[in-house]
Amino acid sequence: MEQKFSYNSLDLQTLREFCEREGEAVFYRKGDQMEREGDPSRWFGFVTEGCFKYVTHEIGSDREHITWFSFEGEYVGDYPSCLDGRPAQTSIVAMMPSRVLRVTGSQLMQLFRQDMETMELRSIIAEHLLCQPKSCPSRQPSSSSRPFRVKIGLRFIIMQVFGQRFCTFNTPKA
């Protein structure tokens, strides 16, 4: 199945093939963390089995807020924090036994530096991260809604690429 970005036909298959070729198959048990909020973000991957939740914690509380999910056939990672090892904005936790073809953020940066096509891919992803709050007015963050900014990024981009809308949370068709 060919998956393309609807506005300029930029193909994300490159990322999947990169994870398949260069990635390490990593198994996570239920509750294992791929990333931990506040620690340097290191990983990006393609989920081949299972699913992950993205969670943040209220400041001064142990209360958990689920901000996103990555399912089988989707990408997982705290993008763009993983590219340069910035602190993860969210914890990424396996919700069941899961398998990921995982690469490091530095490997992903090497991919983006290979040629103009992969640099364009990185640019398109960045543009969507910057414009996504404007694209869904009903999801505008309030000044106190820290989780909104945290992990709408990567899955929103992937949903846009696969022709889905952030506001409707449609399920991908095979």
Keywords:
32% helix; alpha+beta; single chain; disordered N terminus; four-stranded antiparallel beta sheet; 8 strands; 174 residues; 6 helices; disordered C terminus; Jelly Rolls
Describe this structure in words.
With 174 residues, the chain is of the alpha+beta class. The protein has one domain: Jelly Rolls. Helices cover 32% and strands 25% of the residues. The strands form two sheets. Strands 1-8-3-6 form a four-stranded antiparallel β-sheet. A hairpin with a 6-residue loop joins strand 4 (51-57) and strand 5 (64-71).
Q: Helices and strands, in N-to-C order?
A: HEEEEEEHEEHHHH
Could you name the CATH homologous superfamily?
Jelly Rolls
Known CATH architecture: Sandwich
The total tally of domains equals 1
How much of the sequence lies in strands comes to: 25-35%
Strand order of the biggest β-sheet: 1-8-3-6
Distance between the termini: 8 Å
The CATH topology corresponds to Jelly Rolls
* Largest sheet features: 4 strands, antiparallel
β-strand number: 8
Contiguous runs where pLDDT drops below 50 for at least 5 residues = 1-10, 133-153, 156-174
- So how many helices? 6
What would the average pLDDT be, to the nearest integer? 75
Shape: globular
Helical percent range?
25-40%
Derived structural class: alpha+beta
Radius of gyration: 15 Å
